[in-house]
Design a protein that fits this description.
The protein has 16 helices and 14 strands. The chain is an alpha/beta fold. It folds into three domains: about 170 residues, Aconitase, domain 3 (2-Layer Sandwich); about 110 residues; about 120 residues, 2-Layer Sandwich (Aconitase, domain 3), CATH 3.30.499.10. The strands form four sheets. The chain has a five-stranded parallel β-sheet, sandwiched between helices. A four-stranded parallel β-sheet has the order 8-7-6-9. Strand 6, helix 8 and strand 7 form a beta-alpha-beta unit. Helix 2 packs across helix 7 and helix 6 packs across helix 9. The longest helix has 17 residues. The protein binds FE3-S4 cluster (F3S).
Amino acid sequence: MDELKLTAEEQAMLAGAEGSSVKRAMEIVVALARIYGAADLVPVVHVQIAGVSYKNLGDAGVAYLSAWADEGAQVRVPTTLNPMGMERGKWQQWGISTDFATPQLNVIDAFVKMGVTPTMSCTPYLFPQHTPRRDDALAWAESSAVAYANSVIGARSNREGGPSAIAAAIVGRTARYGYHLDENRRANFVVEVHCPVRSVADFGALSYTVGKAVGNGVPWFADLAPSLSPSPVATGEGWGGGSDRLKTLGAGLAAYGAVALYHVAGYTPEARDLGETLIRPDAQRLVVESLDDAYRVMDADPDLKKIDLVTIGCPHASLTEIAQVADYLRGKTLATRLWVTTGEPTRQAAAELGYVQTIEAAGGEVVADTCAVVAPMRMLNVRTMATNAGKMACYAPMHSGVRMRFGDVEQCLDAAVTGEWCAPSHG
Ligand code: F3S
């Protein structure tokens, strides 16, 4: 293996010239570089930290983060945060205990002390000041955001872990391996989809089928581009723009497989520029004939009728998605809870346009800072949920212990209106 090359500045950081926290962070980055055989480090322009909810961190995680902050650690590149376990302004009204809220707020304080911007959203790319550009090197730890940045934007990030992202933020670098290298961005699966993919939920079902088959591979979707222009017809087909569909596809590919990069022929930037030269000669062919099996697994509880919470916005909703929910709910009254989860800047933009007020008038909430996977749903008395998001259908039963229905956004919103899942099962 070639020796890892460090610049004079990096060597000084490693030797402790910039203090103990920088030295410790550089030790983490260098250890990972050696494990993965990186030739050198790459400066990053942005870091996204995951593992922010107290639900996942526990007391040991809070102590770990507080130790960094107390030592005086400071991030040296723009750094943002994944969702936490509650909304800043609503946790008391939701009935979240101070035993949960106090350590959760301590986590955010520790990050802010380190210079991190407390965005608490899994979609940093939706905020103009944090949207990466093509070829930007990133150290992002949110798997859905990594898939979006690599695939839809053409930026470059590996799936960082919690500590490695913090270390990268403190030293402003990460190891140059994996998806930072051209050779690893070529596709090793060619996916042909021979069935209609019409709605956001269909994209989630496709993510299940392909994610399970390709694992951590790089799929090339040969014929998906036409499905990224939603039909104007007033059915589930019309929901979400192309980027919303890819947001859900990447999140599901990362959740059901470990995909960090995919290409859509004629659509995503590298596929547009490089064409089929991006496909490895030994790529395997995968044909998707039907989404029925995916729906059977993802909507696995067909006897479940009563829904405690309908959740839309995984990954966090775009302004377009919030507008579509508001349009659908205008003049309706909900019988059960609805969360449209999003980032605070998007919620503010939605409030300026009146969408938040329309959703609230129906009885729903546009929720910032959190989601139904990282919030303590048992404390909120939520035991049954409905979602249109593939990743949520995968994670919420595992992490929040809920029973789940999965289907189109209209089926989900209809369940919010009636309090019951009335739609027939797919297929
Ligand atoms: Fe985001 Fe939560 Fe989904 S962090 S990607 S909304 S599971």
